[in-house]
Amino acid sequence: MGRVRLTWTIGGVGLVLCGVMGMFQYSVFGLASAIAVAMDIVFAGAVLLFAIGLSQEASVVARRPLGTTALAVVALWPLVMRVAQPFLPTMDAATFDAGLEAYRAAESVLTTVFLVNLLVSFAAGSIAAVQIARAKVVPGPWRWAPLWALVLSAAAVVLPQLLFAVAGATGAQIMAEVAILLGAVGFLARTLGLGILALVLAPRTRADSVNVYPSI
């Protein structure tokens, strides 16, 4: 039981720390980039700890290969995107001055990367959330909390796009503020919210209640 409690406590603290860093990321002048990198590293460590656990009973997916792999992708994908970011084209004045063809090529690459990022994040998050629920390591109904957070995060991405389409140019400023707010809510749901939940559930865990299913 100690390993279960310790795993969820450390992982929960990590997610809470990610949420706090995200809220204050742009409040510290000159350190936004450094905080973002630190946030991705802490997030990766916390999610990997939840995936593997200090014991099999402590793993939120009971160390099933599918769930563990999905959570590993969830943990490491933000770091992959951050490493790839310097190699991506930028949509700036220099790109525009290079000509329409260069501008369209850069736009195409960025659009493709955005869609791939969205697809990988959503697919890995969906598989991980379902595997957490199926493993039944997390007490019900809280085992569905990762899926709730995923749905909220997806809504935070989709809703602003729909609102922009409806509002048009006249309401662009208002919709931009709404998009930022929704994005913050989605981010906090999958970091601060899940972290607090893990800390609350950690003292209530019982190793002998874990239902470890065969790997699928």
The helix tally amounts to: 7
The average pLDDT score comes to: 85
Uncertain parts: 207-216
Overall form: elongated
Q: What fraction of the residues are assigned to beta strands by DSSP? A: under 5%
Major beta sheet, specifics? none
Helix content: over 70%
The count of strands amounts to: 0
Radius of gyration: 19 Å
Distance between the termini: 25 Å
Class based on secondary structure composition and strand pairing: mainly alpha
| Sequence of secondary-structure elements | HHHHHHH
Give a verbal description of the structure:
With 216 residues, this protein is an all-alpha fold. 73% of the residues lie in helices and 0% in strands. It is built from 7 helices and no strands. It has helices spanning 2-24, 32-52, 65-84, 93-97, 100-135, 145-167, 172-201. Helix 1 (2-24) packs antiparallel against helix 2 (32-52), helix 2 packs antiparallel against helix 3 and helix 6 (145-167) runs antiparallel to helix 7 (172-201). It is elongated, with a radius of gyration of 19 Å. The protein starts with a helix and ends in a 15-residue tail after the last helix. Mean pLDDT is 85; it is low at 207-216.
What topology does this entry show?
Layout (H helix, E strand, L loop, with lengths): L1 H23 L7 H21 L12 H20 L8 H5 L2 H36 L9 H23 L4 H30 L15
Helix pairs in contact: 1-2, 1-7, 2-3, 3-5, 5-6, 6-7
